[in-house]
Amino acid sequence: MTSYSIAEYKKMIGDAKPKRGTKRPKVKSQKVPNEFDAKFALELKALKIDFEQEFKFHPSRKWRADFHLIDKKILVEIEGGIWSNGRHTRGKGYLGDMEKYNAATMLGYQVIRFSTEQVKSGLAIQQIEKMVGDFK
Fold it and tell me: Would you say 66 and 78 are in contact if contact means Cβ atoms under 8 Å apart?
């Protein structure tokens, strides 16, 4: 068995810590798809409703809507964590959501919000199907 000192080991594999003053590259965070977004997207496709996910609707803010129903100016938000004290139900997150949704409305979008339970039960897609049918 060969043994190495810590200094020898670091020299062999390189020091994992960046040197002081060096910047780590920024990693762009992306929303991780969840089962409810995937289910809702499949249902929209089945109904042949054109949509895009993670739609950046604001010209200067980084806000994104979960879904944008193309040619209808409808944004769909699927709100998770409403029973577990998630971001959407705590003060700061709730205020941020109000600002985002009001800005979307002022830009001419209708904002429709559903819980994950409503997506799971099928209520969300039923309501969207009715809304889109009313647009035709």
Answer: yes
